[in-house]
Design goal:
Structural class: mainly alpha
Largest sheet: none
Order of helices and strands: HHHHHHHH
Number of helices: 8
Mean pLDDT: 79
Low-confidence stretches: 98-104, 106-120
Radius of gyration: 17 Å
Helix content: 55-70%
Strand content: under 5%
Length: about 190
């Protein structure tokens, strides 16, 4: 059984309570989840109190603890994992956020945004991005998923296309539109 089908089958086995399925699933998905977590953590400030392994563990506990979730397939699992990791980091940023946003500086969505200076806490910017992503999700859920996987998850166009089961051309088009929309939203924020 290839990896995609094996993950999908193990997700169904975990949901049905099959003995040993959860341990097999962990062994199969841990490396990919850790890669995803490392991508998220590279965009955080140095010295962040969360480490990639802790992020993976927290996300995995939340994912598997969601007993009502019916996983469609491997792609659905990884998209949800990326979203869960982003939520964990947002929750962490909120807990550190002060009552006032710092400085009122405009924020742009580009790869330089989250290249963090060790002296700067970007919690408020992370929260602004999250709020904009929530608005985008209401408008176009697929574009939101593409942003999560490309920007936060560090996936390539091809990997994103595979995860969402769409063409690379669609990913490129939606990525371009979503980035332009988000940049306008953040500029106006």
């Amino acid at each position: 059984m290839d990896g995609d089908h094996q993950v999908t089958q193990l997700l169904a086995d975990v949901a049905s309570g099959k003995r040993g399925a959860e341990e097999q699933l962990v062994q199969l998905v841990y490396a990919e989840l850790h890669r995803l977590a490392q991508s998220y953590m590279r965009k955080e400030r140095p010295g962040h109190t969360l480490q990639a392994s802790a992020l993976v563990n927290e996300a995995y506990v939340r994912l598997i603890g969601e007993r009502e979730m019916r996983w469609e397939n491997r792609a659905h699992f990884y998209v949800t994992a990326a979203r869960t990791m982003r939520r964990i980091l947002i929750d962490h940023a909120r807990s550190k956020q002060t009552a006032k946003r710092d400085g009122g500086q405009p924020v742009t969505l580009n790869e330089a945004l989250l290249t963090i200076d060790s002296a700067v806490d970007r919690s408020s910017e992370m929260l602004m991005i999250d709020e904009a992503l929530q608005r985008l999700e209401r408008l176009d859920p697929r574009q939101c998923k593409i942003v999560e996987l490309r920007f936060f998850g560090g996936l390539t166009v091809e990997e994103t296309a595979q995860a969402l089961e769409i063409s690379p051309k669609t990913v490129k088009r939606d990525w371009s539109v979503a980035r332009a929309w988000l940049e306008a939203e953040l500029r106006d924020a």
